[in-house]
Amino acid sequence: MTRLIASFSLFALLSGTVARPASGQDGATVSATEYEGWRQYNVQCARCHGQDALPNPVAANLLVSLAPKGPAADKATFTKVVMEGRPGRGMPAFKETVTPEQVDAIYAYLKGRAEKRIPAGRPQEPAKG
C-alpha cells in the first residue's frame, strides 16, 4: 500500500498536478520595510555579501555580524559601516549611493535574516493598503 501511495505521489509530482505556490509567493511574510530591505540588499549588497546574505569568502558574514552580540548588531554601528565603509577591509562607503531610509530597510531585512525570522529566498511581498 505504501508503495502505491509513493508511486502515485511521484507520478503527481512529475506530471505537475501537485499544487505549488505561485512564483514569489512561497517566501516568508515580511513587513513592507523588510521587503524593501530585501530589494535594496539585492541591488546594493548581494554582489559582495552573497545571495540571501549567505556566507561567502569575499566579504563579512552579515548573518554573524548582525546576530545578537555581533559586531554590527546595533543599527547605529551597521549604519556607520554602510555609510562610511571600511576601506582597509575592502568595504566601500555608500553615503553617496543609498539614503538613510534604504539603510534602515536593509538593516531590518538583515536583522530578520540574522535572527532566523526571515529564511533565505525571496520573501512574499506585503499586501499594499
Description:
By secondary structure, the protein is mostly helical. The protein has a domain at 31-114: Cytochrome Bc1 Complex, Chain D, domain 2. It is built from six helices and no strands. The chain has helices at 2-15, 32-44, 46-49, 62-65, 75-84, 100-114. Helix 5 (75-84) packs across helix 6. The longest helix is centred in the C-terminal third of the chain and has 15 residues, at 100-114. The radius of gyration is 19 Å and the shape is globular. Mean pLDDT is 85; it is low at 4-25.
List the helices and strands and how they pair.
Elements: H1 2-15, H2 32-44, H3 46-49, H4 62-65, H5 75-84, H6 100-114
CATH third-tier fold name of the domain at 31-114? Cytochrome Bc1 Complex, Chain D, domain 2
The CATH homologous superfamily of the domain at 31-114: Cytochrome c-like domain
Task: Tell me the CATH architecture of the domain at 31-114.
Answer: Orthogonal Bundle
β-strand amount: under 5%
> What is the N-to-C order of secondary-structure elements (H for helix, E for strand)?
HHHHHH
Task: Assign an overall shape.
Answer: globular
